Amino acid sequence: MLQDNLKKLREEHGLTKRELCEKTGISERAYLTYEFGEREPKISVVQKLADFYGVTTDYLLGRPTAQPPTDALERLFTEKSFSALEEELLRKYMELPHEARQAVVRFINDATAKALQRKNGTAPQKLLVMKRSLHKVSAGTGYDLNDSDAWETVTVKDTDDSRKADFLLEIEGDSMETTFHDGETVCVQQTPCVEVGEIGVFWVDGCGYIKELGNGCLISHNSSYDPIPLQGTENRCIGRVLGTADVIDD
Question: N or C: which end of the chain has fewer CB within 10 A?
């Protein structure tokens, strides 16, 4: 199936969903629906992904007569010039599971940042590596925080809020203006309930929201949006929003 091949090829290339979307120019929100099998991509998107992975569209679509792709790493070594050491390092990296690859990338990013600080004569800044959901929280589509494949790791500044947080979420939309803004990343402390007047992350009838908890409803800070009633809905609290995170490696 297409969704299985998309996930398989992405993982074989050691890419997160966000990294793939950045490299191909495909909308991250749209891509999530393709890989989770919620929607079929247009043929132009299928062709773009096939070209990116170096496979045929028939293979990507899972057609029985399609030929499997040639080894992408061997093709890369043939097309580009690598030293023996570089080839060995790339082979070892590609053999690692996804989480281990992310750890290698974090190590390289951290080493690069420290080297740059030494070069510029600046004091090292305290940083934290945290997990952030690929599903943006808004008055939009649902998300599943138990989906282990829908997380990425990001580096943030070490603050009281980030130290207390269990995970991060990115906001999409303006319903919480001017408290929080579209595109900001917030620190979330996982908890099954919050007090009235506190801002939390909520799941209501399959949709994810960041809102203030009111009496029997969820309140937006942007007056253009009406409160969302909780009565008669399937809902739960995901966590308490502590504040924004200062992400440094987006």
Answer: N
> How do residues 41-62 score in pLDDT, each as one tens digit?
888 888 888 888 878 888 888 7
CATH number of the domain enclosing 178: 2.10.109.10
Please report which confidence band the pLDDT of residue 144 belongs to, taking 50, 70 and 90 as the band edges: low
Specify the higher pLDDT residue, 162 or 2.
162
**Does 190 map to a domain?**
yes
Euclidean distance between CA atoms 114 and 9, whole angstroms: 33
Q: Residue 26 maps to which CATH number?
A: 1.10.260.40
pLDDT of amino acid 142: 44
Judged against a pLDDT cut of 90, whether residue 133 lies above it is answered with no
Which of 160, 148, 122 has its CA nearest to residue 246? Answer: 160
CB 208 within 8 A of CB 133: no
199/210 same-domain check: yes
**Neighbouring residues of 84: CB distance < 8 A, sequence distance ≥ 6:** none
Kindly state whether residues 148 and 236 are assigned to the same domain. yes
- Residues with Cβ < 8 Å from 44, sequence gap 6 or more? none
d(CA 7, CA 147): 13
Q: What are 182-219's pLDDT values in tens digits?
A: 889 999 999 999 999 999 999 888 788 899 999 999 99
Q: Is there a contact between 153 and 211 (Cβ–Cβ < 8 Å)?
A: no
Same domain (yes/no): 7, 79: yes
Tell me, yes or no, whether 18 lies in a domain.
yes
How is residue 154 written in tokens?
């990001």
16: in domain: yes
CA angle 86, 88, 89 (to 5 degrees): 65
Chain mean position to CA 187: 15
